[in-house]
Amino acid sequence: MKAVNKKTGNEYEVEMSGQGNVSLKCLESNQVRRVEYSTFKREFNLVDQEVEVNRATESVEQELKTVDQLVDDILGSCNEPDTVITLDFSEKPKTNPRKKSEKKVESSGLTTLKDICEELGVNPTKARRVLRKTIGKPESGKWEFDETNAEKVKSLLR
């Protein structure tokens, strides 16, 4: 890595050590000195960072030239002179965003425990606990009741 002293403008070869010190070798005089990392940050600018930015810029410019060449090839192959081709590089919106699935309402005439709990203002978890102790788990695995059993469940939960 290379660094430049902010005051003098001298260039230095930089080596980081594990003890929080930085070794600096002056490229002009070949003198080596060690400074603390905090001093290094305050008095020097890294040169290699600019090189990386330049490399990235060159890469983007190369990609743009490639795109321009592709566009020229496409436009050159069109027979109609007034043809307009629009290239959209923006992020595409999701075509089918996930939606919460709507539950199917069965018209079986059964009342669910959820409906009963909402009607009575009871916590469904506590209601299931009470029902398991009194009548056991439902055979079908669903807490659904016909009208007569729904009334019995309501009376148990009140």
What does this structure look like?
The chain has 158 residues and is an alpha+beta fold. Among the domains are: 2-49; 111-157, no CATH class. It has helices at 37-43, 48-77, 113-120, 124-134, 147-157; strands at residues 2-5, 11-16, 21-26, 32-36, 44-46, 111-112, 144-145. It is elongated.
Topology (elements, then pairings):
Layout (H helix, E strand, L loop, with lengths): L1 E4 L5 E6 L4 E6 L5 E5 H7 E3 L1 H30 L33 E2 H8 L3 H11 L9 E2 L1 H11 L1
Antiparallel strand pairs: 1-2, 1-5, 2-3, 3-4, 6-7
Strand elements, count: 7
How many helices? The count is 5
Q: Give the overall pLDDT as a whole number.
A: 79
Beta-strand content: 15-25%
SSE pattern, N- to C-terminal:
EEEEHEHEHHEH
Biggest sheet overview: 5 strands, antiparallel
Can you list the strand order of the major beta sheet?
A: 4-3-2-1-5
Low-confidence stretches: none
Principal-axes geometry comes out as elongated
Radius of gyration: 37 Å
Give the helix proportion (percent range): 40-55%
Structural class: alpha+beta
Question: What is the terminal-to-terminal distance?
Answer: 77 Å
Pick out its properties.
alpha+beta, five-stranded antiparallel sheet, two-stranded antiparallel ribbon, elongated, 158 residues, 5 helices
Q: What's this entry about, in short?
A:
The protein is α+β, with helices and mostly antiparallel strands and 158 residues long.
